[in-house]
Amino acid sequence: MMKEGEVKTIIGFHKKLITFQIIVITFLYFFGRMIRGEIRVRRFIPFLRRLLFFLSKMYHNKYVKVKRGIKLNLYVPAFPTRAFFQACRKVNEFDKKMPCVTCLVSITSACRYKCPHCYQKYDKGKDVNIDVVIWAVKKLQEKGIAFFNIEGGEPFLVFDRLKKVCEAIDNRSEILINSTGDGMTHEKLSELKKHSNLLGIMFSLHTEDPEKLNKFMGSPNAWDNLLSGITMCHQLGIPVTFNSCVMKEEFYDGTFEKIMDQAKAHNGAILQLIKPKPAGGWLESGTDIFREKDEETVTNKVNKFNLEKKYKGYPSIACMLMEEGKSMFGCTAGATDRFYINAKGDVQPCEFLNISFGNIKDEDIEIIYDRMREQFNEPGDCLLCEKYSGDIFRLYKKHNLKTLPLDPELSEEFK
């Protein structure tokens, strides 16, 4: 039996055995649902084929075993939890659009850092009433959301709000909380640990150098807060994960490898590798353009860390650049698989696409969700945030706006 907070990575032949086990148990689970009439008999085989196709897309991943279960992918709930099987039900929809599985929810804009890339730079305004957020979260669970990524700003600065949202999410969904470590305490983490569906805490690790991190995040305490938060999580047996926004040149100068060394040293389970996006703080300036050669370099490095025995002890890498590629899942914004609710209550296709389909304080989340889904039939073959960032900034300047996302009326221009 695994200890609290223990992490085991799975590659090679062991991963093949685990994959076979997942296939067998998942087949038996849904076969029972078919016998009980929850799945139509004529749809059962196509349903299984869809699940097998999805599993085939997990080949490049390093599986990670934590106490909660086995993680195949960052946004796929751990197997064999209730949330995992909830997520599997996505591909049992044949008559309508497949439901969304993942929702990123910002519960506050409060933050003491000043990261230059922050996609919430222009998201100015009052945090929406927390009861409205809770109502929306509960309705989204009914619609099949199996993974909630909760963030801020910094959620630990408004812990009462964070606690209430986590309490509203039952074990049909998995919870991951994004944090810088600022405002985190042993007592707060102890409260969150009571939720059996908590996957862990995701910390921002954008460089291996303490001084560079402090400078990048605009706080002399950023590195110390990071280390303190990681230490508290390990003391309480809460899995630690990381996100890292790595610039193009940092894949060539050794920075990426140094970040991975840090993530390993701190016993990270997963590292989300974020491709720089032209949103928020980088909406006007744009970001690094990754050419085919650069994408190949990133892919080779990620596959090395995820698949080779030499790097088995390193965290699993969830690479946005690879997963959003045409050969994988494409751009899943707009609730084709994920979407975003900001701290003001705006419903956006994703956190990097600064347009709004409505606000949960004004309309029911189901109405807004359905309106958004009408515009997004299937995953995009390009990154929509990159395609439309220039147009979004042009409208922002043209109308002398003080905040983003664009309101629903201006957002109509992108339909």
Structure explained in plain terms:
α1 packs antiparallel against α2 and α4 packs parallel to α5 (159-168). The N and C termini lie far apart (51 Å). α6 links the parallel β6 (174-179) and β7 (198-204). The strands form two sheets. Strands 10-9-8-7-6-5-4-11-12 form a nine-stranded mixed sheet. It has a three-stranded antiparallel sheet with strand order 1-2-3. The chain is built from 14 helices and twelve strands. The protein has helices spanning 12-35, 41-56, 82-88, 130-142, 159-168, 186-193, 210-217, 222-236, 255-265, 292-307, 320-323, 365-375, 384-398, 408-411, and strands spanning 8-10, 63-66, 69-71, 102-106, 147-151, 174-179, 198-204, 240-245, 270-274, 316-319, 338-341, 347-348. The protein is an alpha/beta fold and 415 residues long.
Tags for this entry?
single chain; 415 residues; alpha/beta; nine-stranded mixed beta sheet; three-stranded antiparallel beta sheet; 14 helices; 12 strands
Topology:
Layout: E1 8-10, H1 12-35, H2 41-56, E2 63-66, E3 69-71, H3 82-88, E4 102-106, H4 130-142, E5 147-151, H5 159-168, E6 174-179, H6 186-193, E7 198-204, H7 210-217, H8 222-236, E8 240-245, H9 255-265, E9 270-274, H10 292-307, E10 316-319, H11 320-323, E11 338-341, E12 347-348, H12 365-375, H13 384-398, H14 408-411
Parallel strand pairs: 4-5, 4-11, 5-6, 6-7, 7-8, 8-9, 9-10
Antiparallel strand pairs: 1-2, 2-3, 11-12
Helix pairs in contact: 1-2, 4-5
